[in-house]
Amino acid sequence: MNWGEMLSRRARVEVDGELATILAGPPPGTLGMTGGFPNPATFATELLVEIAQRLVRDEPGIALQYTASEGIPSVREYLLERVEATQGRRPERAELGVTSGGMECIDLISRTLLDPGDAVVVEAPTYLGAIMAFARYQAELTGIGMDEHGMDVDQLEERLESGFKPKLVYVIPEYQNPSGRTLSLERRHALVDTCRRHGVLIFEDVAYRELSFGGDSLPTLWSIGPDVVLQAGTFSKVFCPGVRLGWAAGPAELVAQLAVAKQNTDQCAGALGQRMVEEYGRAGHFERALPSTRSLYATHWAALSKALDEHMPHGCAWSEPTGGMFTLLRMPESLDAIALRPAATEAGVAYVPGRPFYVTDDGANEMRLSFSALDEAQLAEAAKRLAGVIEAAVDFAGSRSS
Ligand SMILES: Cc1ncc(COP(=O)(O)O)c(C=O)c1O
Question: Which of 58, 90, 162, 281 has the largest count of CB atoms under 10 Å?
Answer without folding.
Answer: 281
